[in-house]
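Reviewer comment 2.1 asked that we show a complete input and output for one of the modelled complexes. We chose the thymidine-5'-diphosphate case, as it is the one discussed in the main text.
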Amino acid sequence: MSNAFKLKISHVSFVNLGCFDDSPDGILFIAEAEKNIPFKIKRVFFINSLGKQQAIRGKHAHKQGEQIIFCISGSFDLILDDGNHSQKFGLEKSTLGFKIGPLVWLTMKNFSPDCVILVLANTYYQEEDYIRDYQQFLKIVHQK
Ligand code: TYD
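Response of the prediction step:
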């Protein structure tokens, strides 16, 4: 599937889930490590119950870890910032994933009540890999 997004920020690219349309008996979506997913998947998590209109998630960057974010139900806004540019993407249920490399500040908001976000990551959860302070993030980016 092609995508309509034009990327202005670094360390971000697109990935697609495989899709097998068995309608009306369902549609299968497929992620295979080191095939359509360009890394060994160490962790999968999903986020649902995003019922609160004002909820804001993310607000962090990773030092090394990579992740791929999919909107698999509903919709939300994904805001990505590489320290030089910021870009907002309106995501709707799709097979399109955003592959987000290190040193990208990400924020998620404006969730529809039925929103489900699927994340595939190439690392186990490690709090030490997070940068949770935006000023520190900018400092690290501009030191490089
Ligand atoms: P966080 O990554 O801040 O969530 P989001 O980016 O969606 O806002 O995670 C919130 C908390 O959940 C974090 O403090 C620890 C826990 N957590 C884990 O234990 N393992 C995980 O893989 C993730 C993503 C979070």
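The chain has one domain: 12-143. We note this here for comparison with the apo prediction described in Section 3.2.
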